[in-house]
């Protein structure tokens, strides 16, 4: 029996990659006043960041309704397929709860809903792992286990130009607030226990990139990596090139932060994610890090 993989638009997976892996992406919503736009469908990242920087009003976001998940699950399970649905941290969004409600309202379909505790490419890595396991013909339980295994080996660091957008959206913790009060510093954040958490601060964007690369070098050997940007594709390319130097031969996915995460991250943000090699390949216990 086939296993279908579902995630949401905060995974920041390139559309062609999601399509090639058979991953269905359910969009979250961006609101400019009364205007409601589906992330990545009604508004692209490029269009969004242009509006974010030109309009005075602050956009807001919302999760997909349970009915959107129900409809997707119904369509994907029509041929008897089981579904594994992996979503952004429940501490950052109500998307996971909506997915659960959508699954509960659908009779006769086997749907497993997973709270990734992650966002952006860290969530994307879990969706990729699940899709690859599904292609191998693994059972639904094994597909979930594959995603959870990768999540346990995933490390994400994000470099912000400003914390203003996180502050506006109420997604900033006390540690991040402290960093935000220090002038002319580039904050580095991670997601810890499902929430945005401080991971450091440096003087310039260039030094922040070097610091992230230094930390990732200590996590080697690596299995795969990903880099995302909001408005700085050249920095994304440079980051990916440096990651190739750290771990030659591993797949590195480059993407762009979508509108929903962009509401909270703001322009100029740059994120990188690495998945460490499994313990057997690494020659010991999984490494620890941010």
Describe the structure.
There is one protein chain. With 290 residues, the chain is of the alpha/beta class. The chain has 12 helices and 13 strands. It has helices at 15-21, 45-54, 66-76, 95-104, 120-136, 140-152, 164-169, 174-180, 205-217, 233-246, 259-265, 279-282; strands at 3-8, 23-26, 29-32, 35-38, 60-62, 82-87, 111-115, 154-159, 186-192, 195-202, 222-229, 252-256, 270-276. The strands form 3 sheets. Strands 10-9-8-13-11-12 form a 6-stranded mixed sheet, with helices on both faces. Strand 6 (82-87), helix 4 and strand 7 (111-115) form a beta-alpha-beta unit. Helix 3 (66-76) packs across helix 4 (95-104) and helix 5 (120-136) runs antiparallel to helix 6. The relative contact order is 0.16. Mean pLDDT is 92; it is low at 177-182 and 282-290.
Shape verdict: globular
State the end-to-end CA separation: 38 Å
Instruction: Assign a percent range to the helix content.
Output: 40-55%
The average pLDDT value, as a whole number, equals 92
Number of strands: 13
Which residues form runs of ≥5 with pLDDT under 50?
177-182, 282-290
Q: Hey, roughly how much beta strand do the residues contain?
A: 25-35%
Largest sheet: 6 strands, mixed
The sequence of SSEs as H and E is EHEEEHEHEHEHHEHHEEHEHEHEH
Report the structural category: alpha/beta
Number of helices: 12
C-alpha-based Rg, rounded: 18 Å
SSE arrangement:
Elements: E1 3-8, H1 15-21, E2 23-26, E3 29-32, E4 35-38, H2 45-54, E5 60-62, H3 66-76, E6 82-87, H4 95-104, E7 111-115, H5 120-136, H6 140-152, E8 154-159, H7 164-169, H8 174-180, E9 186-192, E10 195-202, H9 205-217, E11 222-229, H10 233-246, E12 252-256, H11 259-265, E13 270-276, H12 279-282
Parallel strand pairs: 1-2, 1-6, 6-7, 11-12
Antiparallel strand pairs: 3-4, 3-5, 8-9, 8-13, 9-10, 11-13
């Amino acid at each position: 029996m086939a296993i279908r993989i579902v995630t949401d638009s905060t995974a920041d997976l390139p559309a062609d990659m999601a399509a090639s892996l058979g991953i269905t992406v359910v969009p979250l919503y961006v609101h400019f006043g009364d205007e409601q736009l589906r992330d990545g469908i009604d508004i692209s990242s490029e269009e969004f960041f242009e509006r974010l920087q030109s309009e005075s009003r602050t956009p807001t976001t919302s999760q997909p309704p349970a009915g959107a998940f129900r409809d997707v699950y119904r369509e994907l399970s029509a041929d008897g397929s089981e579904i594994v649905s992996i979503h952004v941290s429940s501490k950052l969004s109500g998307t996971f709860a909506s997915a659960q409600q959508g699954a509960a309202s659908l009779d006769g379909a086997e749907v497993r809903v997973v709270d990734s505790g992650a966002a952006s490419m860290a969530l994307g890595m879990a969706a990729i792992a699940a899709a690859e396991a599904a292609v191998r013909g693994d059972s639904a339980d094994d597909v979930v286990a594959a995603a959870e295994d990768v999540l346990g080996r995933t490390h994400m660091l994000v470099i912000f130009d400003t914390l203003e957008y996180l502050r506006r959206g109420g997604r900033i913790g006390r540690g991040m607030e402290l960093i935000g009060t220090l002038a002319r510093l580039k904050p580095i954040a991670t997601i810890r226990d499902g929430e945005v958490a401080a991971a450091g601060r440096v003087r310039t964007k260039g030094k922040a990139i070097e610091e992230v690369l230094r930390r990732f070098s200590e996590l080697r050997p690596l299995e795969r990596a990903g880099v995302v940007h909001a408005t700085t594709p050249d920095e994304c390319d440079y980051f990916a090139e440096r990651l190739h130097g750290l771990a030659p031969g591993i797949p590195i996915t480059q993407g762009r932060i979508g509108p929903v995460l962009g509401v909270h991250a703001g322009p100029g943000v740059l994120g990188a994610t690495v998945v460490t090699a499994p313990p057997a390949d690494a020659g010991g216990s999984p490494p620890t890090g941010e």
